[in-house]
Amino acid sequence: MGEHASALGLVRTIPGPFHRARALNNLALAAILAGDHARWEALWAEAEAIARALPHPAARAKVLTALARTAASAGRRELAETAEARLRDRTSNVCHQSRALLNLARAMMTMGDAERAKGLGHHAEALARGIGQTGKRTKIQTELIDLAIAVGDLDWAQALAPGLHDPHKQALSLLRVAHAWADAGTPNRCLALLADISSLSGTLRIHGERSRVLTKLTKILTLLGLYERAEGAALRIPEPPQQVRALAELATHVEERHARQAIADEQLTASGSESSSRFNPSPTDHS
Fold it and tell me: For the chain, which domains are there?
């Protein structure tokens, strides 16, 4: 108990309110891990009061987002939502708001509340459309695609990707969605998307970007057992070293699959011969 009091005393001497609030939040997290519910709530409330008074919107949003995640990790959804409400009320900066809502959506995922996470994600998506800086907007939209995949809404994830103005980032995001479709046992959706990605890769002018996309495309097609299409994608890789590597990995995969099939066939043949000998004993067995 003395150590905790000592740590709290040191934190309260931190002169900057932003750093003091963050340190209090870290102590609250430590209290959660220690199972001290009364202490973490008191620390959280103190940090939240400081955060509300922070004059700079970016600093306030950062601390309130961290506090929301702390509350979510403790299973206190109402406190997480209180922090979220503060974020919406105290800043008009759509970038800060959408970033905060996205972080809170991730926190809700850790609580297992996928529907709430999805709702926050859609809110963040609407706000992100109003972000003027392309780089910041693209970053949030890319992370929203990952959130959509995490909550299992692959249609939403796929619909978000065309909003990315950078075709390279768009292709990489679509590849993640295609992989998720394959993992979800919907190969038709995966293949349709892979065809779109293949076409999109042709618009990439930078060789490194096109190589990266086609390499990933080759791997997915290989895993799906579509070796001819995988080879076709690999042969379009413009950088020779990466093309050679992709073709070598494809060849290795094909050889391993053929070897496994040959072993399986051999075992099946041996099993069939064994069964046949049991049901059709030789004449000498009766003598």
Answer: 166-270 (1.25.40.10)
